[in-house]
Amino acid sequence: MTDRIALRGLRAFGYHGVYEHERREGQEFTADVTLHVDTRPAAASDDVLDTVHYGDVAEAVTRIIAGDPVDLIETLCARIAATLFAFERVQAVDVTVHKPDAPITVPFDDVTVTIHRERG
């Protein structure tokens, strides 16, 4: 499938991390998601009910980021991916979580984890 719906830069404040100060103080996380969806039914009908509503996707992703803390952004990616499969038209997802304020002692721009999952 080649059709994709992508949302970039979804931001929310979360309390994820392995260190106590990350869990206590929190930080902003950003997520990029790509949904692999057959868009032909929506294109033919011009009806949002025949696609995946990206507003609903944005809200679902940010709820996960702002929700229950996890140690690893790998786990956060997996939770986001699982949530996206609640949208029945989604066949596969790519999820990237950015942690630009990761506790690293050398200069850096960003830390990301990217996963690809298929409906199984």
Automatic annotation (TrEMBL):
Indicate whether Magnesium appears among the record's keywords.
no
Keywords recorded for this protein, A-Z: Folate biosynthesis, Lyase
| Pfam families hit by this protein | FolB (PF02152)
- What InterPro entries does the annotation carry? Dihydroneopterin_aldolase (IPR006156), FolB_dom (IPR006157), GTP-CH-I_C/QueF (IPR043133)
Which reaction does this enzyme catalyse, per its entry? 7,8-dihydroneopterin = 6-hydroxymethyl-7,8-dihydropterin + glycolaldehyde
Pathway field: Cofactor biosynthesis; tetrahydrofolate biosynthesis; 2-amino-4-hydroxy-6-hydroxymethyl-7,8-dihydropteridine diphosphate from 7,8-dihydroneopterin triphosphate: step 3/4
UniProt EC number: 4.1.2.25
Domain (Dihydroneopterin aldolase/epimerase) spans: 5-117
Q: Which PANTHER family match?
A: DIHYDRONEOPTERIN ALDOLASE 1-RELATED
| UniProt-recorded name of the protein | 7,8-dihydroneopterin aldolase
Species assigned in the record: Microbacterium kribbense
